[in-house]
């Protein structure tokens, strides 16, 4: 997809963490599939208008439209021989800069990286909320204000759950200043260890990605006090975007448009047929989630459907999260509108 924020981390090199965020799987580059999976494995660039295009893969449901577009032939129909590859953080960042990776999925965690010079832009959207904050079942902690003076577990300092928690707490009036925070963040590389820490009382709340919060809630071991997808402040906003390489946007605009058309078809398929999409993802092992029922529920919750006038909605959401990140100290700019206009680029489809 470490140090401690707040009281524990002072002067941490958060910027370095943010610039290297273009990763969901830390692996060496390895091809794992192509548009020819359902047809001829001998397809060449002459078969496809845009030839072979590589896409970084992820085990999260967030990137499911890429897998669905591959499996259902949407890429092929657009003249793309799609290949999924795993790549570490640096490889992804370099790939976007160079144009090797024309598109990857990500969220508002990437905004500081673009501000610092990563040559990429938001070119589309995928879905809404996939981050939750859980507390031990029966906990007296019910609201953001109840977390004042408490310890919150996160996957990494500077990561998206960390940022989402800070935005939520900041809107409730708590200090999220890194030198004078009202909460302490404890990072856990393994989400299972984070939930064990919650049950043991080492932390008071756990902020992280689905599916684990939802799984634990269904087991009756936790209460969910914040859901990025349903919280009144965030519910209507996209949190997972599509980032495009500026090089491809400039030099191959038709190719970029073809990619986005294929992914939009995949999003609409997931929205219309969540169970069938979940079966494809599970059977083909595109995700770490193999429970079809759970994946179906999450697909419905995340709302993948392409919206009417979606470009305006994406632009508005980029502006919204730029302002939020500036408020909690994650962006340097004094002109959030100018930065938001730099981050977002409308692609004519």
TrEMBL record:
Pfam families: NMT1. The keyword Membrane does not apply. Residues 1-25 form the signal peptide. InterPro entries: Solute-binding_3/MltF_N (IPR001638), SsuA/THI5 (IPR015168). Keywords: Signal. It comes from the Bacteria. Residues 63-273 form the Solute-binding protein family 3/N-terminal domain. Coiled coil: none annotated. Belongs to the bacterial solute-binding protein SsuA/TauA family. PANTHER family: ALIPHATIC SULFONATES-BINDING PROTEIN-RELATED. This is NMT1/THI5 like protein. It comes from Bifidobacterium boum.
